[in-house]
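User: My notes are a mess, but here's the protein and zinc ion's SMILES. Can you give me a structure?
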Amino acid sequence: MMYSADYLFLGDGNLLKNASVKVNREGTILEILESSSNDESAIKIEGGISPSFINCHCHLELSHMHKKVEMHGGLHQFIPSLQSQRKVDQSTIDKAIQAWDQKMWENGISAVGDITNGLDSLPTKKSSKIHYHNFIELFGLREAKAEEIFEHGSGVLERFKSEGLSANLVPHSPYAVSDPLYKMIAEASRGKAISIHNQETKGERQMFEEAKGPLQEMLENFGNDPEEFAKEQSNSLLHALQFFPEDQKILLVHNTFSEAADLQAASNSHSNLYWCFCPQANWYIEKTLPNIPLFLEPGLKCTLGTDSLASNLELSILAEMKLIKSHYPEIKTNTLMQWACANGAEFFELDDLGKMEIGKKCGLNHISNLDSNGEITEDSAVSRII
Ligand SMILES: [Zn+2]
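Assistant: No problem, the inputs look usable. Here's the predicted complex:
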């Protein structure tokens, strides 16, 4: 089958105008033509075609929390609200997971880095068309509990692995994990790609720099002893990074309050970092977006994620791109496509995905309603071609 489009986003930063792509029945790319096809049977697509997307950060098991948490309360209000409403009857949880797995596929997402705390999402993931990498996430600030938390997480990890699913252990964030637990996770995930929530709220910076603020108060309200979780390192990101070898592949998620000095310090300390943005969740929780233009420096690798439905109205990578574009119109759609496609596939080492290249089976998305320069607009929508 041959598809001709106004724009082909190849996913790796290359863009072709009035071009065509030919795929076989299995979806393998056979040919890319830098012109409209003369083939009369070619299907004309108005707008653009891209490879399918990689959602680098989601929490599928929280799908039943859709529209349950109030917007714009800040992370210190979001986390307690989430915890108090998390447990509902199993069939509600299961139905939401199944429905949103399907919805992500329809939204052109072929692979997901999914934060996982329990087993709820396992049955859906086993039969999904989407490839999931499961970040089995651990948290807990009480040092005496570290062993127990680690054992529990290792049990969840084994269940996923025994079903043939891709998984490894990761820490929640700089602020919610004790040093002994960090060390156990680092040991268990040596050589694996890991993920950490990073600088998601202003209070995270305040907690590390001044041992006060709303996040500090939230942790104390959860019954933690401030003496015990006092940190020596005054930068939350560097605190988390110190537990991992300098070449560990690490996805830093959110970066909402990251500053130029943080990027510099992290890049000096670690060589294999990926920066993941989930702008809709940042807007939902904090009503702010990261300073994304800071990350356009050469050498920094950015990716995109949706976060969970507890802090997003949809699970759509295109919707994340549209929000970035509405705040930072100078960032080219083609750049965002590279974050959504090749960079995500590279992070998860998914060789077939992320780039429109002969021999790859990357999936194809139709992106409609581009402007006359091939940029996404408010009205752009995504649908899966294959
Ligand atoms: Zn998250």
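The longest strand covers residues 15-23.
User: Great, I'll file this with my notes.
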